[in-house]
Write a structure and sequence with these properties.
The chain has 182 residues and is an alpha+beta fold. The chain has helices spanning 14-23, 25-29, 44-57, 104-119, 134-142, 171-181; strands at residues 4-8, 61-68, 73-83, 88-95, 124-130, 146-157, 160-170. It has a seven-stranded mixed sheet with strand order 1-2-3-4-5-7-6, sandwiched between helices. A hairpin with a 2-residue loop joins strand 6 and strand 7. The longest helix is centred in the middle third of the chain and has 16 residues, at 104-119.
């Protein structure tokens, strides 16, 4: 049994989400672009949640939180840029430093892929990962994502431009992977 639960983001998550984001801010900023400072100001997280929930209502985003056994938010995972007509989306996740390497990202990825391919009937999922983030690359490799393209100087982290790798996973690849796993 998993020590984590994945569920939809809710407006009531504002305080715990703010705590999660603030406590892990420097950890995240080692690997991904930093959030705008207004995110951490009063009502910044509430506005972010409102934006995410509007995306959920319009079928352009599927925002989730990863919760530990004590009810604390220890990660985020989203389908975003959902394009129903093109039948594709992007996936992203972030996990608290204390929970890194404990299966939270894998649980989130498994759930998001099931939602994407089985509920939304998408045909392709994309992910972009910095070449400096081997843990996230391992998660994508575990789920049979294919490296598609190398992007030079795609993201700015700590005043340095980092290269990223674009990954894709098709519905066929996902179902083949899932069949082998079972």
């Amino acid at each position: 049994m998993s020590r984590f639960l994945l569920r939809l983001l809710q407006q009531q998550d504002a305080l715990k989400l703010a705590e999660f984001e603030y406590n892990n801010r420097h950890w995240f900023e080692d690997f991904i672009e930093k959030r705008n400072d207004t995110f951490y100001q009063e009502n910044g997280v509430e506005k972010h949640i409102e934006h995410c929930l509007k995306g959920l209502q319009s079928n352009t985003m599927y925002p989730m939180v990863i919760v530990d056994s004590e009810g604390n938010i220890c990660g985020r995972a989203n389908l975003h840029q959902i394009d129903i007509q093109r039948k594709e989306a992007s996936v992203g996740y972030r996990v608290a430093q204390q929970q890194a390497g404990r299966g939270a990202a894998s649980l989130a990825m498994a759930s998001l892929l099931q939602i994407a391919f089985e509920e939304y009937s998408l045909v392709r999922i994309k992910a972009f990962v910095s070449t400096e983030n081997p843990a996230s690359r391992r998660v994508l490799d575990k789920f049979a994502f294919q490296q598609i393209k190398h992007h030079s100087a795609m993201v700015k982290v700590k005043e340095q431009w980092l290269d990223c790798v674009e990954y894709h996973l098709s519905s066929e690849q996902y179902h083949s992977w899932a069949d082998k796993k079972d």
